[in-house]
Amino acid sequence: MTIQFEATTQQVKQLLNATNGVEGLDDVRTAIANNLADDDSQKGEVPAEGDNAVIKRSE
User: Fold this and answer.
1) CB neighbours (10 Å) of residue 28?
2) I want to staple 47 with a disulfide (CB 3.0 to 4.6 A). Which of 4, 24, 37, 51 is the partner?
3) Which residues of the chain form beta strands (DSSP E)?
């Protein structure tokens, strides 16, 4: 199952802390922690001349 929600980094960290030690959620906690560590921002990406100033990522 895939679940998508919007939360701040702080809220995700609080969620991880709240589920710490809850039996059966180790895999879920690991997946959330791994995604939290991934940087999906666009910083460091420079648009080519003529491109829009904002580059949207498509997934």
Assistant:
1) 14
2) 51
3) none
Q: For residue 7, give the nearest of 29, 28, 36 by alpha carbon.
A: 36
Residue 57's pLDDT band, with cuts at 50, 70 and 90, is low
* Beta-carbon count within 10 A of 32 CB: 17
Contact of 26 with 42, CB cutoff 8 Å:
no
Instruction: Please report, rounded to a whole number, the percentage of residues in the chain having pLDDT higher than 70.
Output: 69
Give me the percent of the chain exceeding a pLDDT of 90. 34
DSSP structure class, residue 44: T
- CA-to-CA dists, residue 40 to 22, 44, 45, angstroms: 28, 11, 11
Measured at the CA of 11, the angle between CA 31 and CA 22, to 5 degrees, comes to 50
